[in-house]
Amino acid sequence: QVQLVESGGGLVQAGGSLRLSCVASGRTFNEYLMGWFRQTSGKEREFVAGISLAGENTYYSDTVKGRFTISRDNAKNTVYLQMKSLKLEDTAVYYCAAKSPGGYYNTLKDYKYWGQGTQVTVSS
Fold first, then answer.
1. What is the rounded (10 degree) CA torsion for 112, 40, 105, 23?
2. What confidence score (pLDDT) does residue 97 get?
3. pLDDT band at 26 (very low <50, low <70, confident <90, very high)
4. 18-24/78-83 β-pairing
5. Cβ-Cβ contacts under 8 Å for 95 (sequence gap 6 or more)
6. How far apart are CA 113 and CA 85, in angstroms?
7. Pair 103, 33: CB distance under 8 Å
8. What local confidence, expressed as pLDDT, does residue 1 receive?
9. Can you say how many angstroms the Cα of residue 54 is from the centroid of all Cα atoms in its chain?
């Protein structure tokens, strides 16, 4: 079993930046592909970004590409989401997730473990 804990959410002005962190328990962090998803109340959870086992490959949704950067530090069991040029529509609860190799990086059901989420609110 792997526990994931997100942190770094908060209130920021449009155009600002924020960095989210997700720390995983256990000794097998480097065996999982990692992803970030987000969800607004009343809407489905959507893919934001994904990263391969050693961080050599990254994937982004079209809506965040060029503004968000996903990275990981396997020595610290941590995955990050650096967000810049934030927009009002980026407001959501952001979730960290872990997936074994196989399946698709942008498919919610392929992820085995999920964090509790952290709220990001972008104001005008």
1. -60
2. 98
3. confident
4. antiparallel
5. 6, 36, 37, 38, 39, 45, 114, 115, 116, 117
6. 29
7. no
8. 82
9. 16
For 39-46, the CB contacts below 8 A with 24+ separation are 39/92, 39/93, 39/95, 39/117, 40/91, 40/92, 40/93, 45/95, 45/108
The residues pairing with 6 across neighbouring beta strands, listed in sequence order, are 22
**Residue range 64-89, pLDDT digits in tens:** 999 999 999 999 999 999 999 999 99
Q: Which residues contact 110 (CB under 8 A, 6 or more apart)?
A: 99, 102, 103, 104
The encoded tokens of residue 33 equal: 């592909």
**Confidence (pLDDT) at 110:** 96
Token digits of residue 25 = 């328990």
> Using DSSP, how many helices (H) and how many strands (E) does the chain show?
0, 11
